[in-house]
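Cross-posting from the modeling subforum.

Setting up a comparison between two proteins and wanted a second pair of eyes on the formatting. Protein 1 (sequence, then structure tokens):
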Amino acid sequence: MKRLAAAILIFDVVMGLLILCVYENKQVGNWVNEEQNGPGTQGAQTAVSKDIRQADGGNVDSTEEKKIALTFDDGPHPSYTEQLLDGLKERGVHATFFVTGEHAKLHPDIIKRMQEEGHLIGNHTYSHIQLRKNNRDQFREELILTNKVITEITGEEVQYVRPPYGTWDKKFETELNMFPVLWTIDPLDWCSSNADCIAGKVVEKAQENDIILMHDYYESSVEAALEVVDELQAKGYTFVTVEEILFD
């Protein structure tokens, strides 16, 4: 009988110690979680996940401005550029236009409108010439001539250049006091007539501070560009001219 009582007592002591151990481990675990992540971490993580899902769905709660730049090469086109300017004006969007000298000379009224409506105008050479090893002087002269054409229309100095095909000589930066502007997103809009497809490529890749390359010389590109504006504005993006991306 005494042995049975002693066995029961030992069993009770052991179980008590085990229960105490489990309780203390639980408390230590909770303390470590709060020390590392702060109290109420699980609820905060749920709230953050909800905000991300809302942002992905286009319901943007943040007031922080996300800048992105829309740029257009090769124009101005006598009708498509006008359509684009109409659409940008309706949406309160400013863009950057890299114009060729020959097209600017043909359509000075469109260049003037770009300026009056707050768009930035840059140089895209006179005839869309690509810089090569054997034509540096000709390329330089085309930049100078295009600057002259634009300045005669706007009264303002041209500071930015989009070199056709992205080929550039850094010495021009000091020789001509011009700054080259390349791009981060190129949907190859010039080789597609499917506006939805073009816009989809841009929206899928778009991130803050991107510079989007498009062309205002094709109707499908203009349609796609306005789709891009609508979709990215809904996601909280603000469209700015390139100098705000490059120097802010």
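Protein 2 (same layout):
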Amino acid sequence: MTKLSQEQIRSLVEESRDHTCDPYDCCVRLAAIADMPSRFGEFQICALVSPCDGKEHTAIIKGDVLDKEEVLVRVHSECLTGDVMGSKRCDCRDQLLESLKLIEKEGTGMLLYLRQEGRNIGLTEKLKAYFLQDMGLDTVDANVVLGFRPDERDYGIAAHILRTLRVRSIRLLTNNPEKVQQLKKHGVKIAERVPLIIQPTEHSERYLRTKQERSGHLMGDLADVTSVEEIDEMATESQDTD
């Protein structure tokens, strides 16, 4: 099985240990990489720490991704209620598991697990947003009422992890065109958008509809859009009509 060698791991950790972060950029430092056999296959898992806030992020790697082009990548933000507790209010757990299955099937790939609970507003604030949703608001309006933007996530962290692990370009597993745009702004080369469609349940239907209608997620008639150029054009058209 192809994987990062002990020599490669030592080199990466040493390079990262001496890395100096831009004072205006919250970056990460690679602390360790270890084998992680799982129900989905044989992976390696990376420990990455952000010096700016102490958050611990992880990257789950399949195969040797160093200096590779068009690596299949999922950038996944933490969701305790969905990923761990199996909440049916969102599609987070299903997307996480499906991504690992697809990466295993691909033979080479990576899942970045970012500590950005609740679109980076934190667990407590996310549960306050859930209460507001129980009162009738959707996910976008609930965040705004609490004083946040609809999405507070920082994709600079993901871009930094990809640079740290020397990934040259990616095929991004996402339905979120904003994620494509933000990663590109941080210098990530994206060759293709790979759809990650999860069928709604009676509990998640409203949540997924809000993603599509208010956040512009590529679902429904747009589920098959994979071209990054086409996504760029759609973003430009959206800005022109705002």
